[in-house]
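Predict structure. Chain length: 141.
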Amino acid sequence: MAHTPFQVEILTPEGSVFDDKVEMVSTRTTVGEIGILANHTPLLAMLEPTELRLYVGEGEPLRFAQSEGYLQVGGNHAMLLVAEIHRPEELDAGALRERLSELDRELASAEPDSERHQLALGEQRRTQAFLRVAERTSGTR
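Prediction complete.
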């Protein structure tokens, strides 16, 4: 069953990444998974690092590794403002695993309530999410 298309924009600090019509957006907010269809109730939400899926039509969705950011829905339009976004094929699972090891060492040496510790935790969540997307693409674990 086809859904009514609606406009979706994805913006990063570097500029526009996507601006087209889709039938559904699937992502994760701070309160859980969400699917957005046309005519969705207005919404403003904080996004968590995850796999973003854009369903353009029949077949496989467009997939991205999405960092933290914001989602705004209103007027049959969705806008995602994210710090970072990558196509799965752009991700290097080996480099992401190495970065997680570095972050583990950094977290072990940082004071638990320090800014350094909080920044490393955020980067760890993002890197783990990106690694999950990379591993789904390559079929490795």
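Summary: The longest strand covers residues 15-22.
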